Amino acid sequence: MVRDAGRLIRHVHSWMSRPLPPPPAALRRGPLRRGAFDTRARSPRLTSLLGAALGVAFLICFVTGLLSHLIQHPPAWFGWPSRPVGLYRVTQGVHVATGLASVPLLGAKLWSVYPRLFSWPPVRDPAHAIERASIAALVAAALFQLISGILNIARWYEPMPFFFTAGHYWSAWLAIGALLAHIGVQLPIIRTALTRPSPEHAPAGALTRRGLLGAVGVAAGLITVATAGQTVAPLAPVSVLAPRRPRTGPQQLPVNKTAGGAGVRDAIFDPAYRLALTGPGRTESLSLADLAALPQHTVVLPISCVEGWSATATWTGVRLRDLIARAGLDPEGAEAYVESLEARGRYRATTVPPPHARDPYTLLALRLGGQPLHPDHGYPARLIAPNRPGVLQTKWVGRITVRRAS
Ligand SMILES: Nc1nc2c(c(=O)[nH]1)N[C@H]1C(S)=C(S)[C@@H](COP(=O)(O)O)O[C@H]1N2
Ligand SMILES: [Mo]
User: Fold this and answer.
1) Residue 255 confidence (pLDDT) above 90
2) Which secondary-structure segment (H or E) carries 119?
3) Which residues' Cβ are closer than 6 Å to ligand 1?
4) Of 42, 190, 275, 285, whose CA is between 20 and 30 Å from 31?
């Protein structure tokens, strides 16, 4: 049995490393000719150093992105707490920052290896062909992740003929799988390259390796500073590339979707507006005056958009747990389904799970910064809960259905 397996493996191995016929030498021109590239600044060490930095950035980006996905689409085994209130703000800020810092790292890494695209012969044997195909998959998935992520934070959806969230999520698995396989295959090379002391210096005048690494580091730092202001308020003035600034927008808060864009203007200003509050076996209609007559609470909580911007604001309104009790359930074991007056749209409704439903900071907010909500911020009432992605902070709330948590 074991002998057979051993023989099979040897057989596959020899088949995989069986040399393929060389391609016609006449093709060896242009970038394929010998010595077509200046290799002085390129080395396995440079490539390995860039790869290590990129690997760390990608891993952090993957984990924080996966977390964001789980919070938005929680499977039965997954739970996410309501405290600390700003945890999601940090994890998602880190997700977007590591993604953006990966841009110069990936650029430099590709520059350091692209001459190999023209290596001769293009494929030596079947094993080599598989290795090259896996690198092609890794490069394609990595580029797709960075480009789609940047288009998303720039809110430029036209070039993406697919649903961003699904595309970005599935391609992330492809990228991380290809990355782990790549690290596994390259490990011996990486180990020698990183343990051997840095060899010969490049001749004066040429781009030195250290200079290149420094430039890449500076570029990554500049990109971070130029965008982190979308969530780190003191950096806002220098964040020239940030698509949003924390203090810019109606009531000093950025807007994701406007009331006009959501088509809710008529519904939200209708004097007949009532909040439908439904619990097991009963439904109640609450007017704005009814809601304002209930005990009011004020909390300071951020909106933390999945697109990486976030901003803190002061919200006043009715505790969701008070509404749950009013609908006839114990807030300790209840969840709430919150629906917008918005007729269509992916983000018109969310489920508030028990940790957030019972948290005294979770409000059906009526006021922002002491004033009634601006129409674009969800007038007449919107959900605001601690430690939740902005996409789950439903605006223009028209109905709340309370049920026992499963
Ligand atoms: N009904 C509804 N609520 C919504 C949205 C939406 O499209 N429709 N967008 C969400 C997203 S993605 C974010 S980041 C926050 C932003 O809130 P703001 O526009 O008040 O800053 O609202 C959320 N609430
Ligand atoms: Mo968002």
Assistant:
1) yes
2) none
3) 253-257, 262, 303, 305, 340, 342, 345, 347-348, 377-378, 390-391, 393-396
4) 190
Domain boundaries, the chain: 2-238, 259-404
Q: How high does pLDDT run on average in the chain? A: 92
Summarize pLDDT for 297-319 with one digit per residue, the tens: 999 999 999 988 999 999 999 99
What is the reported pTM? 0.92
Chain segment 42-73, per-residue pLDDT in tens: 888 899 999 999 999 999 999 999 999 999 99
The two structure tokens encoding residue 176:
């991380």
Report the 10 Å Cβ neighbour count for 280.
12
Residue with structure tokens 């698995």? 173
Give me the pLDDT at residue 175, please: 96
Beta carbons of 268 and 389 less than 8 angstroms apart: no
The number of the ligand nearest the C-alpha atom of 395 reads: 1
CATH architecture of structural domain 259-404: Alpha-Beta Complex (3.90)
Distance 332 CA to ligand 2 centre (A): 28
Ligand lying closest to the C-alpha of residue 307: 2
Instruction: Name every residue whose Cβ is closer than 8 Å to that of residue 259 and which is 6 or more positions away in sequence.
Output: 265, 268, 375, 376, 379, 396
